[in-house]
Protein backbone atom coordinates (compact mmCIF):
# COMPACT_ATOMS: atom_id res chain seq x y z
CA UNK A 1 0.00 0.00 0.00
CA UNK A 2 2.81 2.45 0.89
CA UNK A 3 4.56 1.66 -2.38
CA UNK A 4 1.40 2.43 -4.34
CA UNK A 5 0.89 5.75 -2.52
CA UNK A 6 4.49 6.85 -3.10
CA UNK A 7 4.25 5.84 -6.75
CA UNK A 8 1.23 8.10 -7.15
CA UNK A 9 3.15 10.94 -5.54
CA UNK A 10 6.09 10.30 -7.88
CA UNK A 11 3.68 10.68 -10.80
CA UNK A 12 2.63 14.01 -9.31
CA UNK A 13 6.28 15.10 -9.23
CA UNK A 14 6.77 14.09 -12.88
CA UNK A 15 3.83 16.36 -13.74
CA UNK A 16 5.48 19.15 -11.67
CA UNK A 17 2.40 19.52 -9.46
CA UNK A 18 2.45 20.30 -5.71
CA UNK A 19 2.26 17.68 -2.97
CA UNK A 20 3.34 16.93 0.58
CA UNK A 21 4.03 13.54 2.19
CA UNK A 22 4.42 13.44 5.97
CA UNK A 23 4.41 11.34 9.14
CA UNK A 24 3.45 12.65 12.56
CA UNK A 25 5.62 11.96 15.64
CA UNK A 26 5.46 8.37 16.97
CA UNK A 27 3.04 7.38 14.22
CA UNK A 28 3.23 4.55 11.69
CA UNK A 29 0.96 6.22 9.16
CA UNK A 30 1.90 8.27 6.11
CA UNK A 31 -0.32 11.18 5.06
CA UNK A 32 -0.35 12.62 1.54
CA UNK A 33 -1.91 15.81 0.23
CA UNK A 34 -2.03 16.32 -3.54
CA UNK A 35 -2.79 19.64 -5.21
CA UNK A 36 -4.37 19.26 -8.64
CA UNK A 37 -3.07 22.50 -10.12
CA UNK A 38 0.19 24.44 -10.04
CA UNK A 39 -1.22 27.62 -8.49
CA UNK A 40 0.78 29.17 -5.66
CA UNK A 41 -1.62 29.97 -2.82
CA UNK A 42 -0.96 31.85 0.42
CA UNK A 43 -2.70 32.11 3.76
CA UNK A 44 -4.41 35.39 4.57
CA UNK A 45 -5.22 34.98 8.26
CA UNK A 46 -4.66 31.25 9.03
CA UNK A 47 -8.39 30.60 8.92
CA UNK A 48 -8.00 28.50 5.76
CA UNK A 49 -7.98 24.70 5.61
CA UNK A 50 -4.99 22.80 4.23
CA UNK A 51 -1.26 22.29 4.73
CA UNK A 52 0.75 25.40 5.50
CA UNK A 53 4.46 26.00 4.77
CA UNK A 54 5.78 29.23 6.29
CA UNK A 55 9.20 30.94 6.05
CA UNK A 56 11.38 32.20 8.90
CA UNK A 57 10.54 35.80 7.96
CA UNK A 58 7.15 36.34 9.59
CA UNK A 59 6.50 39.29 7.25
CA UNK A 60 6.48 36.95 4.24
CA UNK A 61 3.20 35.06 3.60
CA UNK A 62 2.94 31.32 4.21
CA UNK A 63 2.23 28.94 1.33
CA UNK A 64 -1.07 27.05 1.59
CA UNK A 65 -1.65 23.69 -0.08
CA UNK A 66 -5.40 22.93 -0.35
CA UNK A 67 -6.81 19.47 0.31
CA UNK A 68 -7.64 18.57 -3.30
CA UNK A 69 -6.84 14.89 -2.68
CA UNK A 70 -5.75 13.06 0.46
CA UNK A 71 -4.16 9.63 0.77
CA UNK A 72 -2.95 7.52 3.69
CA UNK A 73 -0.87 4.38 4.09
CA UNK A 74 0.79 2.50 6.93
CA UNK A 75 4.59 2.36 7.09
CA UNK A 76 5.89 -1.07 6.21
CA UNK A 77 7.97 -2.68 8.94
CA UNK A 78 11.34 -4.32 8.43
CA UNK A 79 12.88 -1.86 5.99
CA UNK A 80 16.07 -0.46 7.44
CA UNK A 81 17.99 2.41 5.83
CA UNK A 82 21.47 1.95 4.41
CA UNK A 83 23.66 4.79 5.61
CA UNK A 84 26.93 5.75 4.01
CA UNK A 85 29.99 7.45 5.42
CA UNK A 86 30.18 11.22 5.92
CA UNK A 87 33.41 12.33 4.29
CA UNK A 88 31.90 15.76 3.77
CA UNK A 89 32.69 16.65 7.40
CA UNK A 90 36.25 17.63 6.46
CA UNK A 91 34.88 20.20 4.06
CA UNK A 92 32.90 21.83 6.86
CA UNK A 93 36.20 23.08 8.27
CA UNK A 94 36.15 25.75 5.57
CA UNK A 95 33.08 27.25 7.21
CA UNK A 96 34.40 26.98 10.75
CA UNK A 97 36.22 30.32 10.94
CA UNK A 98 33.22 32.29 9.66
CA UNK A 99 30.76 30.56 12.01
CA UNK A 100 32.97 30.94 15.08
CA UNK A 101 33.42 34.63 14.26
CA UNK A 102 29.62 34.93 13.99
CA UNK A 103 29.28 33.37 17.45
CA UNK A 104 31.82 35.86 18.83
CA UNK A 105 29.91 38.80 17.35
CA UNK A 106 26.67 37.59 18.91
CA UNK A 107 28.31 36.97 22.29
CA UNK A 108 29.85 40.46 22.19
CA UNK A 109 26.42 42.08 21.76
CA UNK A 110 25.11 39.96 24.63
CA UNK A 111 27.97 41.11 26.85
CA UNK A 112 27.17 44.73 25.92
CA UNK A 113 23.52 44.20 26.91
CA UNK A 114 22.04 44.63 23.44
CA UNK A 115 20.88 41.01 23.30
CA UNK A 116 20.03 38.29 25.80
CA UNK A 117 20.33 35.50 23.23
CA UNK A 118 20.68 35.08 19.48
CA UNK A 119 20.36 31.97 17.31
CA UNK A 120 22.94 31.77 14.53
CA UNK A 121 22.96 29.20 11.75
CA UNK A 122 24.72 28.21 8.56
CA UNK A 123 23.98 26.32 5.37
CA UNK A 124 25.92 23.36 4.00
CA UNK A 125 25.64 22.39 0.32
CA UNK A 126 26.55 18.86 -0.77
CA UNK A 127 26.11 16.74 -3.87
CA UNK A 128 23.02 14.55 -3.67
CA UNK A 129 22.33 11.70 -6.07
CA UNK A 130 19.70 9.89 -3.97
CA UNK A 131 16.08 10.16 -5.15
CA UNK A 132 13.95 12.32 -2.80
CA UNK A 133 11.55 9.50 -1.94
CA UNK A 134 14.47 7.30 -0.93
CA UNK A 135 15.79 10.04 1.38
CA UNK A 136 12.32 10.46 2.84
CA UNK A 137 12.09 6.76 3.65
CA UNK A 138 15.46 6.95 5.42
CA UNK A 139 14.11 9.82 7.51
CA UNK A 140 11.13 7.67 8.46
CA UNK A 141 13.42 4.85 9.58
CA UNK A 142 15.72 7.11 11.60
CA UNK A 143 13.32 9.63 13.20
CA UNK A 144 10.38 7.78 14.71
CA UNK A 145 9.63 10.53 17.26
CA UNK A 146 9.90 13.43 14.79
CA UNK A 147 7.58 15.03 12.24
CA UNK A 148 9.01 13.80 8.91
CA UNK A 149 8.02 15.38 5.62
CA UNK A 150 8.70 15.77 1.89
CA UNK A 151 7.15 18.96 0.46
CA UNK A 152 7.17 20.17 -3.14
CA UNK A 153 5.80 23.08 -5.11
CA UNK A 154 7.15 23.84 -8.61
CA UNK A 155 7.21 27.58 -7.87
CA UNK A 156 8.97 27.22 -4.51
CA UNK A 157 11.08 24.05 -4.62
CA UNK A 158 11.50 20.77 -2.74
CA UNK A 159 12.11 20.57 1.00
CA UNK A 160 12.26 17.67 3.39
CA UNK A 161 13.22 17.12 7.01
CA UNK A 162 12.56 15.62 10.41
CA UNK A 163 11.76 18.10 13.15
CA UNK A 164 11.27 17.41 16.87
CA UNK A 165 9.72 20.77 17.74
CA UNK A 166 6.00 21.58 17.86
CA UNK A 167 5.09 25.20 17.22
CA UNK A 168 1.52 24.51 18.29
CA UNK A 169 -1.13 21.80 18.35
CA UNK A 170 -4.81 22.69 18.67
CA UNK A 171 -8.03 20.72 19.02
CA UNK A 172 -11.05 23.01 18.87
CA UNK A 173 -10.05 25.71 21.38
CA UNK A 174 -7.40 23.80 23.33
CA UNK A 175 -3.75 24.54 22.57
CA UNK A 176 -0.41 22.85 23.25
CA UNK A 177 2.98 24.35 22.48
CA UNK A 178 6.52 23.80 23.75
CA UNK A 179 9.83 25.45 24.38
CA UNK A 180 12.75 23.44 23.02
CA UNK A 181 16.35 24.50 23.53
CA UNK A 182 19.73 23.02 24.34
CA UNK A 183 21.43 20.27 22.35
CA UNK A 184 23.60 17.34 23.35
CA UNK A 185 24.85 14.31 21.41
CA UNK A 186 23.46 11.01 22.67
CA UNK A 187 25.65 8.41 24.32
CA UNK A 188 23.98 5.02 24.45
CA UNK A 189 23.13 3.94 27.97
CA UNK A 190 23.67 7.41 29.46
CA UNK A 191 21.21 10.14 30.37
CA UNK A 192 22.20 13.71 29.44
CA UNK A 193 23.84 16.04 31.94
CA UNK A 194 22.98 19.66 31.19
CA UNK A 195 25.19 22.69 31.77
CA UNK A 196 24.07 26.11 32.95
CA UNK A 197 24.22 27.51 29.41
CA UNK A 198 21.59 25.03 28.13
CA UNK A 199 19.41 25.40 31.25
CA UNK A 200 19.40 29.21 30.99
CA UNK A 201 18.71 29.09 27.25
CA UNK A 202 15.72 26.79 27.73
CA UNK A 203 14.36 28.88 30.62
CA UNK A 204 14.48 32.07 28.51
CA UNK A 205 12.48 30.44 25.73
CA UNK A 206 9.86 29.11 28.19
CA UNK A 207 9.45 32.50 29.87
CA UNK A 208 9.13 34.28 26.53
CA UNK A 209 6.43 31.93 25.20
CA UNK A 210 4.45 32.14 28.45
CA UNK A 211 4.54 35.94 28.38
CA UNK A 212 3.73 36.13 24.65
CA UNK A 213 0.60 34.00 25.11
CA UNK A 214 -0.69 35.42 28.37
CA UNK A 215 -3.02 37.98 26.72
CA UNK A 216 -4.23 35.50 24.08
CA UNK A 217 -5.12 32.45 26.19
CA UNK A 218 -6.57 31.33 29.51
CA UNK A 219 -5.94 28.38 31.84
CA UNK A 220 -2.26 28.28 30.90
CA UNK A 221 -0.20 25.48 32.44
CA UNK A 222 3.59 25.25 32.17
CA UNK A 223 4.98 21.74 32.58
CA UNK A 224 8.27 20.54 34.00
CA UNK A 225 11.52 20.62 32.04
CA UNK A 226 12.33 17.24 30.51
CA UNK A 227 15.01 15.72 28.30
CA UNK A 228 13.77 14.43 24.94
CA UNK A 229 15.63 12.56 22.24
CA UNK A 230 15.46 13.26 18.49
CA UNK A 231 17.65 10.95 16.43
CA UNK A 232 21.18 11.17 17.78
CA UNK A 233 20.54 14.34 19.81
CA UNK A 234 19.05 15.27 23.18
CA UNK A 235 17.11 18.48 23.84
CA UNK A 236 15.47 20.19 26.80
CA UNK A 237 11.70 20.63 26.47
CA UNK A 238 8.85 22.21 28.42
CA UNK A 239 5.22 21.67 27.39
CA UNK A 240 2.73 24.52 27.70
CA UNK A 241 -1.05 24.04 27.46
CA UNK A 242 -3.87 26.60 27.39
CA UNK A 243 -7.34 27.48 26.10
CA UNK A 244 -7.77 30.16 23.45
CA UNK A 245 -10.84 32.02 22.27
CA UNK A 246 -9.44 34.38 19.64
CA UNK A 247 -8.56 33.41 16.09
CA UNK A 248 -5.52 31.27 15.45
CA UNK A 249 -3.61 34.01 13.63
CA UNK A 250 -3.06 35.91 16.89
CA UNK A 251 -1.55 32.80 18.48
CA UNK A 252 0.76 32.15 15.52
CA UNK A 253 1.94 35.74 15.41
CA UNK A 254 2.67 35.60 19.13
CA UNK A 255 4.71 32.40 18.77
CA UNK A 256 6.59 32.79 15.49
CA UNK A 257 9.50 33.18 15.45
CA UNK A 258 10.27 31.93 18.94
CA UNK A 259 13.53 32.74 20.76
CA UNK A 260 14.54 29.11 20.10
CA UNK A 261 15.09 29.96 16.42
CA UNK A 262 15.69 33.74 16.57
CA UNK A 263 16.73 35.17 19.94
CA UNK A 264 15.85 37.78 22.54
CA UNK A 265 14.79 40.53 22.31
CA UNK A 266 13.28 39.48 18.99
CA UNK A 267 13.70 42.69 16.88
CA UNK A 268 17.46 43.17 17.43
CA UNK A 269 18.08 39.41 17.27
CA UNK A 270 16.26 39.21 13.92
CA UNK A 271 18.22 42.24 12.66
CA UNK A 272 21.53 40.59 13.66
CA UNK A 273 20.57 37.38 11.82
CA UNK A 274 19.56 39.20 8.65
CA UNK A 275 22.75 41.27 8.58
CA UNK A 276 25.37 38.72 9.63
CA UNK A 277 24.40 35.14 8.73
CA UNK A 278 25.47 35.73 5.13
CA UNK A 279 22.69 33.61 3.60
CA UNK A 280 18.89 33.58 3.32
CA UNK A 281 17.15 31.08 5.63
CA UNK A 282 14.04 30.85 3.45
CA UNK A 283 11.87 28.13 5.08
CA UNK A 284 14.47 26.91 7.57
CA UNK A 285 13.20 27.80 11.10
CA UNK A 286 9.81 28.61 9.62
CA UNK A 287 6.91 26.26 10.34
CA UNK A 288 4.72 23.74 8.54
CA UNK A 289 1.83 21.37 9.09
CA UNK A 290 -1.90 20.77 9.05
CA UNK A 291 -4.10 23.85 9.35
CA UNK A 292 -7.72 23.73 10.56
CA UNK A 293 -8.33 20.14 9.51
CA UNK A 294 -11.89 19.03 10.25
CA UNK A 295 -12.78 15.45 11.06
CA UNK A 296 -15.62 13.49 12.57
CA UNK A 297 -14.90 11.31 15.59
CA UNK A 298 -17.22 8.42 16.31
CA UNK A 299 -18.27 7.88 19.91
CA UNK A 300 -20.73 5.67 21.76
CA UNK A 301 -23.41 7.11 24.00
CA UNK A 302 -23.65 5.50 27.45
CA UNK A 303 -26.71 7.50 28.43
CA UNK A 304 -29.06 5.09 30.25
CA UNK A 305 -32.01 6.87 28.66
CA UNK A 306 -30.71 5.78 25.27
CA UNK A 307 -31.81 2.16 25.24
CA UNK A 308 -30.20 1.50 21.87
CA UNK A 309 -26.82 2.84 23.11
CA UNK A 310 -26.52 4.62 19.78
CA UNK A 311 -23.23 5.80 18.32
CA UNK A 312 -22.91 9.48 17.53
CA UNK A 313 -20.27 11.61 15.84
CA UNK A 314 -18.63 14.84 16.94
CA UNK A 315 -16.86 17.33 14.68
CA UNK A 316 -13.41 18.60 15.67
CA UNK A 317 -11.09 21.15 14.10
CA UNK A 318 -7.39 20.67 14.68
CA UNK A 319 -4.06 22.15 13.62
CA UNK A 320 -0.59 20.68 14.06
CA UNK A 321 2.27 22.99 13.18
CA UNK A 322 5.97 22.17 13.56
CA UNK A 323 9.08 24.35 13.52
CA UNK A 324 11.10 23.53 10.40
CA UNK A 325 14.34 22.25 11.94
CA UNK A 326 16.62 19.40 10.74
CA UNK A 327 15.67 20.18 7.17
CA UNK A 328 17.18 20.45 3.71
CA UNK A 329 16.36 21.85 0.29
CA UNK A 330 16.91 19.73 -2.83
CA UNK A 331 17.67 21.32 -6.20
CA UNK A 332 19.82 20.55 -9.27
CA UNK A 333 21.57 17.52 -7.79
CA UNK A 334 22.45 19.39 -4.61
CA UNK A 335 21.16 19.22 -1.04
CA UNK A 336 21.38 22.36 1.06
CA UNK A 337 21.36 21.53 4.79
CA UNK A 338 20.67 24.02 7.58
CA UNK A 339 22.05 23.86 11.13
CA UNK A 340 22.36 26.33 13.97
CA UNK A 341 22.34 26.92 17.71
CA UNK A 342 21.50 29.43 20.42
CA UNK A 343 24.19 31.84 21.63
CA UNK A 344 24.14 33.13 25.22
CA UNK A 345 26.66 34.85 27.47
CA UNK A 346 28.14 31.44 28.35
CA UNK A 347 28.65 30.28 24.74
CA UNK A 348 32.07 28.95 23.70
CA UNK A 349 32.64 29.38 19.92
CA UNK A 350 34.33 25.99 19.48
CA UNK A 351 31.46 24.23 21.28
CA UNK A 352 28.88 26.06 19.19
CA UNK A 353 30.65 24.95 16.03
CA UNK A 354 30.72 21.36 17.21
CA UNK A 355 26.98 21.53 17.93
CA UNK A 356 26.29 22.43 14.28
CA UNK A 357 28.58 19.59 13.17
CA UNK A 358 26.64 17.13 15.34
CA UNK A 359 23.35 18.35 13.88
CA UNK A 360 24.64 18.09 10.32
CA UNK A 361 25.78 14.48 10.83
CA UNK A 362 22.24 13.21 11.30
CA UNK A 363 21.12 14.73 7.99
CA UNK A 364 24.27 13.73 6.12
CA UNK A 365 23.70 10.12 7.12
CA UNK A 366 20.29 9.96 5.49
CA UNK A 367 21.85 11.32 2.31
CA UNK A 368 24.23 8.34 2.34
CA UNK A 369 27.22 10.56 1.66
TrEMBL record:
<dbReference type="Pfam" id="PF00425">
    <property type="entry name" value="Chorismate_bind"/>
</dbReference>
<dbReference type="InterPro" id="IPR005801">
    <property type="entry name" value="ADC_synthase"/>
</dbReference>
<protein>
    <submittedName>
        <fullName>Chorismate-binding protein</fullName>
    </submittedName>
</protein>
<feature type="domain" description="Chorismate-utilising enzyme C-terminal">
    <location>
        <begin position="97"/>
        <end position="295"/>
    </location>
</feature>
<feature type="domain" description="Chorismate-utilising enzyme C-terminal">
    <location>
        <begin position="316"/>
        <end position="359"/>
    </location>
</feature>
<dbReference type="InterPro" id="IPR015890">
    <property type="entry name" value="Chorismate_C"/>
</dbReference>
Amino acid sequence: MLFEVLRKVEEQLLKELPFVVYKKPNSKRIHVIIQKDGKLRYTKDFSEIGFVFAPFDSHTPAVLMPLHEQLQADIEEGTEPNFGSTNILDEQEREKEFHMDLVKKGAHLIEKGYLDKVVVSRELEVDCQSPPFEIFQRLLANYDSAFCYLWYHPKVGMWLGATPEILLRTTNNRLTTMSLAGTQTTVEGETPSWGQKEVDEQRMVTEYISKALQNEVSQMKVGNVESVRAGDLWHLRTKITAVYQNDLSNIIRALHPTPAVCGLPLPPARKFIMEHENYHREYYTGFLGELNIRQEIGRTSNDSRNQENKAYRSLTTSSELFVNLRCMKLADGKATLYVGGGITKDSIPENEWQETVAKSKTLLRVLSI
